[in-house]
Amino acid sequence: MTDVAEEDPYLARGFAPLRQEFDCPDLAIEGALPPELLGTYYRVGPNPQFAPRPPYNPLMGDGMVHAFRIAHGRVGYRNRWVRTGRWVRENAAGRALFATAGPFGDDPEAGPRPPDGVANTSLVWHAGRLLALEEGAPPVAIDPVTLETLGPYTFGGALPRNMTAHPKTDPATGALVLFANLPRGRLTGELALHEADAAGVLSAARMVQGPHASIVHDFAITPNFAVFVVCPVTLSLERARAGGPLIAWEPQAGVEALVVPRAGGEPLRFATAPCMVWHVMNAFEDGGRIVLDLCEQDVAMFPTVDGAAPDAGRAAQRLARWDLDPGRPGGVTRRRLHDFVCEYPRIDERRTGRPYRYGYVAGLGGPGTGDLFQRGLARFDHATGEMAVWDAGPGVAVSEPVFAPRGPEEGDGWLLANTYDEASEAGSLVVLDASDVAAGPVARARLTHRMPMGFHGLWIPQP
Ligand SMILES: [Fe+2]
I want to staple 50 with a disulfide (CB 3.0 to 4.6 A). Which of 58, 96, 195, 411 is the partner? Predict the structure, then answer.
């Protein structure tokens, strides 16, 4: 890589791109791999094919999918770049052509930007398809075994443009509830809500008007509602053309939570004090109220409108519960659930949108801590308020945890995550008993190469 790449913290250490594609049929395993654990753990993240055109925005680095296939006491590993239009064009040119940090700055020879984005953020399995997701573009279908790129997936042409990286599967119906932020590609604050039924048939968009164009990265569902949190991160092309930030932290805009009836009807709107929310843990209905659990931070890591640097010391993320009560003036009660600094909230997804007890997070590092990486995993118990923590040890970064079910009870299963060890420059898959996170891994499958810390993961059980 070039000097530019080496100087960028998002291209170094645990974020340094992997330059190869591997097929490792049988990884070395430590501990006792549970015999009932059969399936594939997938991970996706940014992994630029070439040294990016500076400045580098990791949210737009080329997606690479990693898969750990677990069966019969063995773990096989494979990784592949997603062959997006952008990846193919740059591969042919032998260098980066497209800017990652905004709409400007492409190489003069780059040509129009391909519409399928970078497929680097998350993955979902729906209607027999594995989809790599990035919120500004349509999904890209991936072969779940070979990881071959099958191409952009638009639900048979029904998806007009882009789709969130965080769709939600309704466990009662198998429907995939999804949205598009800025669905027309204009910075107007629109959100488009869709549902794909269990067979993959996508509904027409329902347009919801948010207060302003923002980063709406995640959302929540309940049986009857979709819940959005629009934070005071504003997007403005005019500001960018004038030399200001395209994306800015503008706290005076406050927060608006929108509760949108899935069956149709006007959204309920709740105004509350400024914060930034990237990821939601879950939501559920409690009488007439909506209970929304999320990770919030006091400030977003974006410059203010005048270009001033963000206050990194206030960027720590913590779990919070918001009660949205349409029957009460003001309507929003917020409380911190725990002081543990954490991100990447996940659950046993059989409880999506329903009352639930356990949430899983990555913590011990991350924004606001002076450490770019999370260094441990934890389980939060809503019934007791306890956070059970596993510290992965010095110099080890840990990804978001993904829950793999075992028995029918909520929380009976395993947590899967991948790690990066700075000392050995190698990665691993770790398997923890989800009911005893503090005990650490029951099994570990070791890579002999580095696996960059990505964004989100997925477990697909074998039938
Ligand atoms: Fe995300």
Answer: 96
Q: What is the CATH number of the domain that holds 453?
A: 2.120.10.30
Domain of residue 263 covers 3-461
Global pTM value: 0.96
DSSP state of 252: G
For ligand 1, the distance from its centroid to the CA atom of residue 293, given in whole angstroms, is 15
What does the pLDDT look like over 241-283, one tens digit per residue?
999 999 999 999 999 999 999 999 999 999 999 999 999 999 9
CA dist., res. 283 & res. 355, Å (int): 8
Closest CA to 428 of 412, 438, 440, 436: 440
Q: Which residue has the tokens 């004090």?
A: 273
Give dist(CA 110, CA 48) in Å, integer. 16
Q: How far away, in angstroms, is 327 Cα from ligand 1 center?
A: 32
Q: How many residues are given for the chain? A: 463
Q: How far is CA 30 from CA 100, 194, 379, 421, 428, in A?
A: 39, 44, 23, 16, 10
276 Cα to the center of ligand 1, angstroms:
13
pLDDT, residue 329, reads 74
- Calculate how far, in angstroms, residue 32's C-alpha sits from the geometric centre of ligand 1: 31
Q: Please tell me the distance between residue 343's alpha carbon and the centre of ligand 1 in angstroms.
A: 10
Partnered with residue 97 across adjacent β-strands are: none
Cβ neighbourhood burial of 125 (10 Å; 0-12, 13-18, 19+)? middle
| 109 Cα: distance to centroid of ligand 1 (angstroms) | 32
pLDDT tens string 284-307: 999 999 999 999 999 999 999 999
Measured over the CA atoms of residue 111, residue 116, residue 119 and residue 121, the dihedral's sign is positive
2 CA to middle of ligand 1, Å? Answer: 28
- pLDDT tens-digit series, residues 396-451: 999 999 999 999 999 999 999 999 999 999 999 999 999 999 999 999 999 999 99
Number of domains in the chain: 1
Amino acid at 180: A
Ramachandran sector of residue 438 (left: φ over 0; alpha: ψ -120 to 50; beta: rest): alpha
For residue 81, give Cα distances in angstroms to 142, 349, 425. Answer: 10, 27, 20
Nearest Cα neighbor of 132 from 117, 121, 116 is: 121
